[in-house]
Structure formats: C-alpha cells, structure tokens
Design brief:
Blueprint lengths: L1 H16 L9 H7 L3 H16 L12 H20 L9 H14 L4 H22 L22 H14 L4 H17 L8 H23 L4 H12 L9 H7 L23 H22 L5 H12 L1 H15 L5 H21 L9 H14 L13
Length: 393
C-alpha cells in the first residue's frame, strides 16, 4: 500500500513538473496517469483509515478518536493553506483532505453493508449533486477548479468562499472527491491485502472498472450522441470556445477540467479532473488495479526488493508532497522529463537516507508524519485516552 501511495505521489510530480501529457512515445504513460494521482491518493487514504479501524474486523473507535481527528484535520488544513500561499501554481490538496477526514469519521462507524451501499452510490450521486447545485452558487458556466488560501481564515467573505471551494467548486471538492475515500474505506472492510490470492481479483476488478468508466463514456459521447449535445451547449453558453480546435476541451480547460452545469451531457465525459461519474469509476478502477499490482509485486521474490524504496517514499507521502510544493515554488523548474526524473530520484534517495539514519526512531516515519503523530497523540492521550497515529494519507 505504501508503494502504491508513492506511485500516486510521483504521478502528482508528473502533473506538476512533467512534460505535457501527449499520446506519443513515453507521453502515453503521462496520458494514462493524467488526473489519476489525487484520486488514487484519496482512495488510498480511505483504505488507510479503514485499516486503522480494524479493516475486515472493524473495531469501535478508541477514546479520544474524535479529538484526534479534529487535530489531524486542523493541522492538514493549516499546512494546506500555508502551502497554497507559496503561489507554486499547484492546487494544494491538503485542506480538502481535512474536510474528507472530518466527513469520514461518522462513516467509519457504519456497518459493512451500509458502507458498501454508500461506496456504490457516491461515485454517481456526488457528481450529479455537484452539477445540480453549481448554478445556485454561481457556477453554472464557470468558476470551478479553485483552492483556498489564508484568506479563508482572515475574513468572513474569505471563509464563505473557502467553504464553497472545499465543498463544491474547488479543484478537489468534497462532493466529487469524497467518493474515493468512501470506496477506499469499503475496500478495507472487504479485502484483506495480507491474504494470498488477493492480487488477482484486485487487478481484474480494477481493470474492469477502468475500462467500464472510459468505455461507457466513449459510447455515450459517440454513438449515443453526447458530443453533439455538448457542442450545442458550447454554442449556447460558451461561445468564446467555439474557435478552439476542440471546443469541448477548451471549456473544460478553462476551469481545471471540471464540468460546467450547462448541459446534462457534460456528465458523460471522462476527461482528467472532470469530476463526472465515468471519470470517478475509471479512477477507482485505476487505483484498485494499482493496489493489485503492488500486492502482486510484494508477493514476488524478485520484485519485492524493488518495492522497498517506493514503500519508503509512501510512508513519508505527506512530507514528500509538502517539500515538492515548496521546491516548485522556490526553484521554478522547467517542465520536462529531466525535472520529473530529478524530483523522483531525489525523493527516493532522500527518503531512503532519512529512514536509514533514523531507523528505529519515531522521527524515521518522516518529519511531518512524526509531528502530526505527536500532536494527535497529545490530543488523544488526555484523560488517559489513546489513539493510533499517522495521517491515513
């Protein structure tokens, strides 16, 4: 699971400092990864949360768990707002994660059957509600894809806008990204990653879901007539995009890929960051497929040593993510394969060195992971309470 998380982190590197995702040569890999990273990272966070509560044998929350969740969310939100202020050009996801974890706390108490129902419904319900509610909050034609900064805590208008951003209109809003957390939590309830034979069904179901998401979208937009409906919507509500080589993509690019609320046909697209049911299902499939491949590699003698450097990066995912935002803001690297390779190699080497030097010490889990663990433990240890640490991300 840590190795899969590291792959998601590197996919974020590809989105932020890699070359453009074009279907040519090695660019096919970037096309396959485009838009996946935050979804997979979020799904694994839900899985981690489920495993921290007992996995396939769920147990009641420890005393002080709610205080621990509040502290964890407050730290993630503060860190996210601070990183956003660096103006790195990266849509920082950490403040959104704080909202996900708050919302996940009551779901963690559900019975497995109820959680599975929520996991089945939310990938469709979330995007549909986002589409329906958009016009009521001024996002019928545009205005999506934002992320909050410190103005969220310095003024009432800033707070109001931040809530809109975090819940509905942001780059990773709760309505359309929380389903990944729910699916991850449900996955942790029904799948034991330690059990032999787990990899094959994960790979099979993951590949099937990814193909279904993209395949059904292609059918709906092509033979189903969805693209013609979208072009009419562009002509009616987005006339400035008509002169673009691809008017549909021009509309999506104007708001970080998220769909507007000008035609129900927008819900049929599956492009990166579009936040539609088809994209959500495809991304869930990609995440499950990645987990299955990681489990299979972990059970393979020759491949297991190759996973260890990745797993080390995965255990420090929060620290690596924060450092890469800082490096992007300060170094302003040119996008390309050289910058992407450098960021990945430095991350692998730095995490390996950190883990080796601090082996056996709590700080060895990563500086931000350690700090978050200490703060959560301090909050939950009051009145004798205790709670497992970690970010779940």
């Amino acid at each position: 699971m840590d190795a899969a998380r590291a792959v998601a982190v590197f996919a974020m590197f590809a989105a932020h400092i890699g070359p453009p995702a074009r279907p040519e040569g090695a660019g096919h890999l970037l096309v396959a990864l485009d838009g996946r990273a935050p979804a997979v990272f979020t799904l694994i966070a839900g899985l981690s949360l489920s495993l921290s509560r007992g996995g396939t044998r769920p147990r009641p929350a420890a005393r002080g768990a709610r205080r621990g969740t509040l502290v964890r969310c407050a730290v993630l939100a503060a860190l996210g707002l601070a990183l956003a202020e660096l103006r790195s050009g990266i849509a920082v996801i950490l403040a959104f994660f704080a909202v996900y974890f708050l919302a996940a706390e009551p779901l963690a108490r559900l019975r497995t059957r109820s959680l599975l129902v929520a996991a089945a419904v939310s990938p469709v319900l979330g995007p549909v509600l986002s589409y329906v509610l958009g016009p009521y909050f001024g996002h019928r034609v545009s205005g999506r894809g934002r992320y909050p900064g410190f103005d969220a805590v310095t003024s009432w208008p800033g707070l109001r806008d931040a809530l809109d951003t975090l819940l509905l209109s942001g780059a990773y809003p709760w309505l359309t990204y929380f389903p990944y957390v729910v699916v991850g939590m449900a996955l942790g309830r029904v799948v034991d990653l330690r059990r032999p034979g787990t990899a094959v069904p994960l790979i099979g179901w993951g590949a099937l879901a990814a193909l279904a998401g993209h395949g059904l979208s292609a059918l709906a937009l092509g033979p189903g007539g969805g693209r013609e409906m979208l072009l009419r919507a562009v002509a009616d509500s987005h006339p400035l995009a008509l002169n673009a080589p691809d008017p549909v993509q021009a509309v999506l690019a104007a708001q970080a890929g998220a769909i507007p609320s000008t035609s129900w046909a927008w819900l049929l697209v599956d492009g990166p960051y579009s936040q539609t049911p088809f994209e959500t299902v495809a991304n869930i499939g990609a995440g499950v497929l990645l987990l299955g491949l990681a489990v299979a590699a972990g059970r393979s003698g020759p491949l297991r040593p190759l996973l260890r450097p990745l797993a080390t990066v995965g255990t420090m995912g929060l620290s690596v993510y924060a450092v890469h935002v800082l490096a992007r803001a300060e170094l302003r690297p040119q996008h390309g394969w050289v910058a992407l390779g450098a960021f990945c190699l430095v991350s692998l080497a730095a995490c390996a060195l950190w883990a080796r030097v601090l082996r056996g010490r709590a700080l060895g889990r990563g500086p931000l992971e350690w700090a978050l663990h200490v703060l959560v433990r301090a909050a939950t240890s009051r009145r004798g309470a205790s709670h497992p640490g970690g970010t779940g991300a």
